[in-house]
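Structure record:
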Amino acid sequence: MASTETEAESTAAQAGGDSAAPAAAAKDTAATDLAGLEAGLDALESRIIDRQPWLRTVVSKAFPPVVAIVLVLALWQLAYHFSLKPHYLLPSPVDVFRSLQQKWLEGTLLGFVWTSVSRGALGFLASVGIGTLLGLVVARVKVVRAAIGPILSGLQSLPSVAWVPAAIIWFGLSDATIYAVVLLGAIPSIANGLVAGVDQISPLYLRAGRTIGATGLAGVRHVLLPAALPGYLAGLKQGWAFSWRSLMAAELIVNAADLGTGLGQLLEQGRELQDMSWVLAAILLILIVGIGIDLLIFAPLERRVLRSRGLLVKS
C-alpha cells in the first residue's frame, strides 16, 4: 500500500515537472519577444545622425539663419522707409554698413574687435581655471556645497553690471576692473555647470573608478571630469556668454584713454556723439563676435561630445 502511494506521488511530481518546463520556456520566450519589441520601438524612435556631405550640411545649417537675417533687414528697411522713427534716430541698414565701412577704411575696426576679444578670452580662461576648481570642491564636499551652493546660484542671477561700481572703487579705471567684472560674471556659471554635470554621473562609474584605483586627482582626471563633460561643457558655454556680456558692461562704463578702445567703448563713443549709425554698428559687431565664438568653438565641441556618447540623435 505504501509503495503504491509513493509511486502515485512520484507520478504526480513528474507530471507537474513536465507541465512546469513548457510554462517556464514560454515565459522566457515572452520576455525575449518583449525585449525585442522594446528595442525595435527604440530604434524607430531615434537613430544616430550619419555624417552628411559638407556642402549639404552647410546649406542645411546656413539657409535658415540667412532667411531670418534677410527678413530682419527687410523689416528694418521698411521701418526706415515709413519713418517710424526720425532718420537720425533709426538709420537704414545701408547707413550702418557705411559706418562699418568707414571704420574699416580707417584701419581701426579690427583693433576694436581684437581688444575686446583678447580681453574676453583672457578673462574666460582665468574663469575656467577658478570655476573648475570651485565646482569640483562644491560638488564633492557636502559642507562646502551647503555653505556656498546657494551663494553661487545667487551670483549667477546677479546682473554683471552691478559689479562695475564696486570694481571701480577697488581697482580704479584700469584693466583690473574690467577683468574683475568678467571673472565675477563667468565663474558662478562655470562652477554651477560642473556641479550639475557631477550630480548626473552614475554612481556605478565612481565605484568602478575606485575599484581600478582611480582615486584622488587620478579619479578626477580619468573618471569625474570625463563623465561630467556634457554638463561641464554646457557650463563653459554659458560662462562664455556671461563673460562676454560682463565685458561689454564693464567697457561701457570703464572708459579711459590708456585702456585702449574695445567694442564697449566704441558703443559708448557713439552714444556720446549721438551717432545712431555708429551705435548700431557697434551693437552689430558685438552680436557677430558673440555668435561667431559660439558657432566656431562651442558648437563643434558640443556636437563632438554628444556624438561620442551616443546622445546626438534625430527623433
Q: What stands out?
A: The first helix runs from residue 2 to 45.
